[in-house]
């Protein structure tokens, strides 16, 4: 039954690893339950209703990934996309949050159509194999940076943008303890090392005042204030087209990058760079975005934190199903789950970042014609805080260097068209 529903293979997978993988993934991405209502609340939306929409959209999209795509990836409203929703469309451009939700809904519909026609798969196939292999280490650096930033180990500086955090802060010291503990458990091959690290660090944070639990059970807020609140009057405006296209670009290449990077880490990619059931995974993303807009939240996307569950051993849809169950529980146990601080999840993100550097050895850094675009892809992800910008800049650089160095025969028409579209995206969106 598990094999038929979730693609679980008892010969190569274990039930324990699948379940622990799902729980680990959920714990590393549970911060979205607190962050998304806060960001969309700044746009004037009801924060309680957004919390419910965040949870329900994550459950639905992740269940589609688990049962339809049978892959170990979890989905939820995406970071970056929610900031564009709130701070650009609403607070900068001056549109209502209903306008922004309409743009997200239209993006979801377009994504469903692009997935059904196989266009998203064709875009992946157009990308050079070496560039695809550089996505995984880029994501590794990116999620490690996210973990260090959330923990306070990396702080903000007006002079240098980033700097070392305050090592006298108990919260920062707690994160350092968590990283050391998780690393030692990992080196000793302890099963569930990352999950144990998260839980122990959370408990240790209680006497330090870092972990604050205000309760266990709560009633989910109503969706009524934001459910199905669309603004159809502006559907044909130029700004609507710009917003939809921007959502499309960011979400498409965030998802492509995450699926390629995490699949590489899981050993699910063949020598030709093909990922099993990629089209089905794209459909889960598209359905999640569409349903999320109806419920009242920003774009739903595949989470890079899925790498933490994959590293624990999750390989099938049973991992994502477990994450979906955890999200469903969080709807009623929000105070308990939200008590896990960023200092407790940081160790998992940092150590998964280490593990995802594995594929960097496949890039020949003595062959500059391919090494430079791959380096651009890898470095731009953490430095621009965006997976999609890393991929787009990497491919643009790949095409330009090959053209200018006389190696244009190594290019295909698809690469050139994509590069031109990406240049137009940066020029006009």
Structural class: mainly alpha
**Fraction of residues in β-strands:** under 5%
Instruction: Give me the side-by-side strand order of the main sheet.
Output: 1-4
Low-confidence stretches: none
What is the overall number of helices? 19
How far apart are the first and last residues' alpha carbons, in Å?
A: 47 Å
- The strand count comes to 4
Please state the average pLDDT score.
91
Portion in helices: 55-70%
Q: Main sheet?
A: 2 strands, antiparallel
Instruction: Give the overall shape.
Output: globular
Order of helices and strands: HHHHEHHHHEEHHHHEHHHHHHH
> Could you tell me the radius of gyration in angstroms?
21 Å
Can you characterise this structure?
The chain has 429 residues and is mainly alpha-helical. Helices cover 66% and strands 3% of the residues. It has 19 helices and four strands. The protein has helices at 2-6, 15-29, 32-42, 47-69, 81-90, 97-116, 119-126, 129-151, 170-187, 193-204, 238-266, 278-295, 306-312, 317-330, 334-337, 342-355, 368-384, 387-404, 413-428, and strands spanning 75-77, 154-157, 161-164, 300-302. It has a two-stranded antiparallel sheet with strand order 1-4. Strands 2-3 form a two-stranded antiparallel ribbon. The longest helix is centred in the middle third of the chain and has 29 residues, at 238-266. It is globular, with a radius of gyration of 21 Å. The model has no long low-confidence stretch (mean pLDDT 91).
């Amino acid at each position: 039954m598990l094999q038929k529903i979730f693609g679980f293979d008892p010969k190569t997978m274990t039930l324990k690893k699948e379940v622990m993988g799902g729980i680990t993934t959920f714990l590393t991405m549970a911060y979205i339950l607190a962050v998304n209502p806060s960001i969309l609340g700044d746009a004037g939306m009801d924060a309680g209703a957004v919390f419910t929409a965040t949870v329900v959209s994550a459950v639905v999209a992740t269940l589609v990934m688990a049962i339809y795509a049978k892959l170990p990836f979890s989905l939820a409203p995406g970071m970056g996309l929610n900031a564009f929703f709130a701070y650009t469309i609403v607070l900068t451009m001056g549109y209502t949050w209903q306008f922004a939700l309409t743009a997200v809904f239209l993006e979801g519909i377009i994504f469903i159509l692009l997935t059904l026609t196989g266009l998203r798969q064709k875009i992946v196939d157009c990308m050079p194999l070496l560039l695809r292999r550089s996505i995984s280490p880029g994501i590794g650096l990116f999620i490690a940076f996210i973990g260090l930033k959330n923990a306070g180990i990396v702080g903000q500086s007006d002079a240098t943008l980033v700097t070392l955090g305050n090592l006298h802060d108990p919260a920062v010291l707690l994160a350092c303890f968590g990283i050391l503990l998780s690393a030692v458990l990992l080196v000793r091959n302890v099963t569930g090392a990352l999950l144990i690290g998260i839980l122990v660090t959370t408990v240790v944070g209680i006497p330090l005042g870092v972990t604050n639990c205000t309760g266990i059970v709560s009633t989910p807020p109503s969706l009524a204030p934001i459910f199905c609140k669309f603004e159809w009057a502006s559907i044909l405006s130029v700004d609507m087209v710009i917003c939809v296209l921007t959502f499309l670009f960011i979400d498409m290449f965030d998802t492509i990058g995450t699926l390629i990077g995490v699949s590489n880490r899981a050993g699910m990619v063949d020598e030709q760079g093909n990922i099993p059931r990629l089209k089905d995974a794209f459909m889960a993303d598209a359905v999640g975005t569409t349903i999320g807009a109806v419920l009242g939240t920003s774009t739903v996307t595949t989470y890079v934190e899925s790498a933490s569950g994959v590293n624990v051993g999750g390989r099938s849809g049973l991992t994502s199903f477990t994450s979906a169950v955890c999200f469903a529980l969080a709807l009623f146990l929000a105070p308990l789950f939200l008590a896990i601080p960023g200092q407790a999840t940081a160790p998992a993100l940092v150590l998964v970042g280490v593990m995802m550097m594995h594929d960097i050895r496949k890039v020949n850094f003595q062959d500059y014609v391919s090494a430079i675009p791959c380096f651009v892809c890898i470095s731009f992800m953490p430095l621009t805080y965006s997976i999609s910008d890393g991929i787009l800049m990497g491919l643009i650089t790949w095409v330009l260097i090959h053209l200018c160095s006389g190696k244009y025969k190594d290019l295909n028409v698809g690469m050139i068209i994509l590069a031109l579209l990406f240049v137009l995206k940066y020029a006009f969106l």
